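Why show two proteins at once? Because comparison is the fastest way to build intuition. When a single record is shown, students tend to memorize it. When two are placed side by side, the eye starts asking what differs. So, the first record is below.
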Amino acid sequence: MTFIESLFGVIGDLTWGWSLIPILVVLGIFITALTGFVQLQFFRRMFRVLSSKNQSGDPNAISARAALLVSVGGRVGGGNIAGVAVAITLGGPGAVFWMWAIALVGMATSLVECSLAQLYKRREADGTFRGGPARSIIHGLGEEYKWLAVLYAICLIAAFAIGFNAFQGNTVAGAAQESLGIDRMWSGIVLTVISGFIVFGGIRRIAKAADVVVPVMAIAYLLMAVVIILLNITELPGVLYSIVMNAFGLEQAVGGGMGAALAQGLRRGLFSNEAGLGSAPNVAATADVRHPISQGITQSFSVFIDTIVICSCTAFVILLGDVYTPGAEAIDGVVLTQQSLVSHLGEWTQYFLTFILLLFAFSSIIYNYYLGENALTVISEHPLVINALRVVVMGIVFLGAVAPGATAVFFFSDPMMGILALVNLIAIMMLLPTCLRILKDFREQLRAGVERPVLDPEKFPDLDIDRTAWTGKVSGESSVA
């Protein structure tokens, strides 16, 4: 066991320790430059998704908005509350600036990986779609790379469906016990039953649940943060000044100066928005849209919501309060955020934050499950295998909830996520020319006066595209981008 733990520790060091973050940053900058700052060009179009409906007229289809909410529900979580607090504690206020910076370049990376997932998606017998990096590898690079897709799938199942879901179950049960005095076993039972009901309903039920949960949790948290910002509006310019000055080492809040701010901001930003890590494309592929780039734009917006909006809210709550002391590490993580809220608005906010954390964790559980299911279908689509995964995930959620130290067993989660991220980055780099062709097609239609571009598979006869996934897109139908 010690050898296995050491082995995964080495894998974690080789991926997250020195290779992944520089690659993600460099690739994000490269994609941004190569696509002509695509995330800025299409920024206004991103907001159309908020009022969109499905584009085929099929009431059972997954709309771009529903896919966005599922991915936001998965991205938004403890990293937006505890992760931001850790970044500020270890990197100073300047870490927030670098979180913003990595989100801006990550928006371009996310657009590319999610557009590829849409391009190579496959229509299922029930009318829904499946796709993601594994299928992009198989259909984009060829069957000879299927081993790489299988490696990706195994890592995704282990990291998200099993490891991270144990962590989320532990988060929910721990928060309920600490704030509400509810026994972990009861929290585990309730969470397992509700999660089971949703995951056994497939992607349609997952999307419907996200359509309810995600707006509630995001809007509630944003409203509270806006109230705090308005109450301290005169202090806001000083906070923004401190963020910028610390980011470039002109003022030093912690040891390490600009280096600490840069390292913490990039690391926490990437963990939070997951751009380039290969998780969100699995959900992006489920949406029924006219053109792959349309959903890429939508998923780019998800990165913006996660980091630029929600992470910033947490940062302002902390930096506008009097709990945070530069250089002090006695209080960090969710406790720092919680105590900052209390200092602004009173004791009731700690219970409110517990409620928000419960919603964040729950939305992440159903998101993580779907990632695992989608990955599993690359290996086997037999209903018994899929149902077995659902039962395993329910058991993992319960185990994580009832055993306070259970998540320590899942030490393999981060290293496995590191491997799948490297596989995804290899696929992105190899398929980037294909994505640029699709992006060129999208832009040419816009320049020709087409408000809502449509993918014509016949324009790309050399690509292994599922033609049935791109039929029936009538120009008068609803669209988002």
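Second record. Ask yourself what differs from the first in the token line.
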Amino acid sequence: MIIGPAAATCNIIVITDPTGKDPNGAAAGSMSFQNNMFQSTFLSSSSGHFAILSGGEGSSTPRLQAIVASVKAMEAGASPQAAANLANSYSGIRVLVGTATKGAAVGGSYDVYVVTVSNNGTITVTPHSSDGTAVLPAGTRGAIIHLRNTEGNPMYGTASKVRQETAVNMGKMIRDGYSATYILGQAFGEVANDSGEKYGGGGVNLVSGITTGDMFTPAQLNTTGYAMNTPYAKISTSSDGWSIGYPAAEQYQTDPYDGSPLKIEYAYEALINAITVTGQTVQVSVYGSDDIGISETTQEIVAATVKKYGYDNVQIANRINTAIDSGTIVGVNHVEPKDINVKSSSRAVGVYYKPLGNDRSSPPWNLPISSSLLDLIGNIQTAIGLILVLLVLFRSTLIKSFMR
């Protein structure tokens, strides 16, 4: 098997609360025009609350070595600057490291802007290009953004301008009090639209340890991830919070429950919602099926159900089964309340599916006719034969009708 090269061309770390108290006060993420973005987005560690984001023009082996060295350094208590500096020992490799309380730094091969925002609101945007390590000091509100263009990107040549403009806009949002998770998503949208470096990748909330997981990463080797500036889901404008992910969302123009209009949620907006902690935040884990779309659609359904009914495994199972019956979720059997593992204290829900056998896409219908009879009807090759079966089934009803 030949796996194509991968390198994140856009790496961003944002810190809006260097005390680490705001659950949404630090975020990081990566994306690129290249394939195989799951190889380049390293979101570590939920327990250590730091991120290691990689990229560069070097080969995969030294990049992996640089990442491992940086992770080990952070786990041993090193500063982001010391960990990022290790990338300078590897040709063409870039490592961007950050935490909420220790700041951030980038080392190796890079073109970045370091953004700092003082307590009086002064924004400073400073360019750096492969000059040792570039540092966002601990205790400072700010960000680091790296951006280069990928060969073959139709928007090649835009990176320098977009890198600067996005850095300035992030500084303004930090100054104006937006959360780091929101700023990360907005920056992703701007970079995707204006530079073409648009495929996930993903993001992580460094304080709360929530990541986008495989929401946007490629489903198959040697393919691109999800474009961050394209529609990801449709969400009901009513209070029930119903939503559905693409591509199934293309079939819906209104909320199937109350007919209310649907609004489009773009992927960069879905990233914000996935890693931002709110009173309605739900972490959904899906087990039993890796089919494309099932995890995303299940997450949307569970989040909407929790919003309306709370952490009720019966209601969650009912909503999921409705989606299965309507064909929104395919390839899995109906779930029961016991298949829904709810932990309301940690705002987590686990959904355990059982894949259907025999290449079925949906469970058998629950009809008041035996399956053996359906098999018999399925084997009848003529309309006359089917009519005879119907006459046998409903002869008493027909006789009563004629008598009346």
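One difference worth noting in the second protein: The radius of gyration is 26 Å.
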